[in-house]
Description:
- By secondary structure, chain A is of the alpha/beta class.
- Helix content of chain A is 27%, strand content 27%.
- Chain A has helices at residues 19-29, 62-74, 76-84, 94-98, 202-215, 228-242, and strands at 2-7, 35-40, 54-57, 88-92, 102-104, 110-112, 120-122, 131-139, 146-154, 157-159, 166-170, 180-181, 183-185, 188-191.
- Chain B has 13 helices and 19 strands.
- At the A-B interface, helix 1, strand 8 and helix 6 of A face helix 11 of B.
Amino acid sequence: MIKILHMYGDMLDLYGDSGNMEILRYRCRMRDIDCTVDSYSLGGDMPDFSSYDLIYIGGGADLEQQHISADLLRCRDGIKAAYDNGTFLFLICGGYQLMGKYYRDADGNDIPGLGLFDYYTVAPSSRKMRCISNIAIRTSITGKPVDVVGFENHGGQTHDVKTPLGEVLFGNGNCSKSRYEGYMEKNVIATYMHGPCLSKNPELSDYMISYCLSRNGGSGELAPLDDTLEKQCRQVMLDRLLSK
Amino acid sequence: MNRLLILIGKIVVGFLRLFKRNAGNLPGIILWHLTGGKACKMFKVDCPIIAVTGTNGKTSVTNCIAQLFEQSGKKIIINREGNNLDTGICSMLLKYCDGSGKVDADLLILETDESHVPVVYSQLKLETLVVLNFFRDQLDRNGEMETLIQKINGFCKTFTGNLILNGDDPNTARLGRANPENKNVKYFHAEPYAFATDTIYEASEGRFCPFCGEALVYDYYQYSHIGRFRCRKCGFGSEQPYITASGIDLDKPEFTADGHTYSPQLNSIYNIYNMTAVAAAAKLYGIEQKVTDNVINNYTVNNGRMENFMLGDRKATLNLAKNPVGANMTLRVMNEMKGEKELLFVLNDNIADGLDVSWIYDINFTIFERVTRVVTSGTRAYDIAVRIKCSGYDAANIVVRPDLDEAVEELAKTPGRKFVIANYTAVQPTRAALKRYSEKHGGEQK
């Protein structure tokens, strides 16, 4: 049994981010693992964050991020306690940025982050300067190196990332043309990768599912699924990006 | 220099025709580079130009307006293949111009991509601009629509020609205020139809007044954010209508505009808006009523919009889906059909499609009924295959054939009814592949 909390899904849903939930549910269903996804959005009843195995936040435009930031701060203590207690945080783009110290928007205004992690994000003053690209990175979060692909579209440049999710093979990553992408801990995957991120990277899904199960006292071992299509899909993109 | 450029362009067009390929954007792209982005400037166009733009419905409205003039005995030029970017329009003009770049016609009627309106019509003099609507589609998930509207708004600030605007779309109607000096702004509206609602049904844009920031109030919503709106604070939305569709009955289907009743072929509220835009253009240009009747009452879609092909004895229906709304609509039509059927989904990620294909996760594939097999193709054939698989469809019934001809062969292998969905840049190659199959194995385009 896995319990997931999807935060602000109605506002933060760029580039198929909500698809990540569909994929996690699909991979659980194929293995007869119970998986529930609850939704929380602006002004809702304060959830019991620590009762969840995984908290998910997607990405949104600047405007949406401003709208939710005050509400997210209201949830800070709950999310922090859950994270300290081992709840997994899966964060895409805006969700990633808002867990850091702050997000400075294109006009120089600071949107405070939850400060769970040390990094901070600064958007360039020109809104035209964005990192928009297919992206490939090599991550070792699962214990062995695996190449994963996604689509990035962010203005914000994220600095001071101590433990990045992976090394950039193609695309930009945390900053324009940077070497590293995302942020990770044992129970955190934070990334700029949309696409949705999990659609072509079954290892990331399974890492999270396995983490959640073992946290609940299970072995965390997962029955293998036939991921031929997913892997071919990723290989086509890797071939395209890396043969250039 | 001009003559030389035109000659080069014409040679490219001729060369492509030799290989029976649609010329597409290529000749225009070549000239675009040779002229430093000013390719449309090479042409001498003395006749009036009417342009149609907006997120949805451009092709239908462009075709209908063209027919208004064609049936009035005018010589018109229209970009029929849907090449609506500056390079596509340039490629099309290349076919029709003489050696000096002179284009001989009574009228040019050009479907024009939203983002290319300022580029093209800073180079060619525009007489009338028809703007249908602005919706989020796959290109816009990050506030880019506002940038797009700003671009067209910038163009409208100095435009003094006719501006025919959807008065029920705040994103579109706001263009009418771009140039206060322009007295030629005309709004079309539609009264509520049977399924209009009091509250908004789908997530959408344009909830606030673009001029004063006040929340817009709606008398009714037709679909998405389209409906009778106004701003209580600054009066935006209270402009005088030029033409209004009333008595809308989609069962017949029927609607009345300017006291005249029309019986169109297509029974969607989208089509009523499109046809009202056509009626507005007809009114503006004083088209004879019997011609307008003929056009509006007989217009049906083709060119990759619910277009039928015979693959041997197997019927296939092709529909363009450049956004989830279009794709979901096709799936619904497919489901409503009795018996088993197969689907070919062609997904590309060329620049004009948006490099990102994640919008396919907003398509609801769980509604599949009696779909026995899915074939996928295009530059992102695997992505759409994975998407359909994750919706719960048995992967054993999904066949990936990135090559289009192989995909059509695969689709036609088994008997039964076929549906084909293709996104923007995939539509023309898909039509061509379906036709090639028919030529080889019999059957015809219907």
